[in-house]
């Protein structure tokens, strides 16, 4: 399985760390394709940065799909470009780090926001 792990910001060092973590966690036969936009914010620290990152993020999603990935993960602890916001193309499976980590976080504490 080929999975695109897309960092929605433009910081290459962060993308390298994200890809290394994804490769370490991937099962046998899983290929991780790391991606990031060329244009956008260096970090996503709130709604404004998140909004600025969406065009570049979606270009990466489209590029990943053209490169025959089977799923994509948006590597951001925000809802940046998530399918819940109706921004990601629906032709591939999509997940965000935030949305997938919330159940685990909620099992560790009484309150998660």
Short summary:
The chain is α/β, with parallel strands linked by helices and 113 residues long. The protein has helices at 12-25, 47-66, 97-108; strands at 2-6, 31-35, 71-74, 93-96. Helix content is 41%, strand content 16%.
Low-confidence stretches: 83-88, 97-102
Order of helices and strands: EHEHEEH
| CATH arch. level architecture | 3-Layer(aba) Sandwich
Query: How many helical elements?
Result: 3
In the CATH scheme, the class would be Alpha Beta
Query: What's the count of strands?
Result: 4
Describe the sheet with the most strands. 4 strands, parallel
Q: What is the CATH topology assignment?
A: Rossmann fold
- Overall outline: globular
Question: Helicity, in percent?
Answer: 40-55%
The strand order across the widest sheet is 2-1-3-4
Count of individual domains: 1
**Radius of gyration based on Cα positions:** 14 Å
Structural class: alpha/beta
Overall mean pLDDT score? 78
Q: Roughly how many Å apart are the termini?
A: 32 Å
Proportion of beta-strand residues: 15-25%
Give structural notes.
The protein has a single domain (2-108), classed as Rossmann fold (3-Layer(aba) Sandwich). The protein is built from 3 helices and 4 strands. It has helices at 12-25, 47-66, 97-108; strands at 2-6, 31-35, 71-74, 93-96. Strands 2-1-3-4 form a 4-stranded parallel β-sheet, sandwiched between helices. Strand 1 (2-6), helix 1 and strand 2 form a beta-alpha-beta unit. The radius of gyration is 14 Å and the shape is globular.
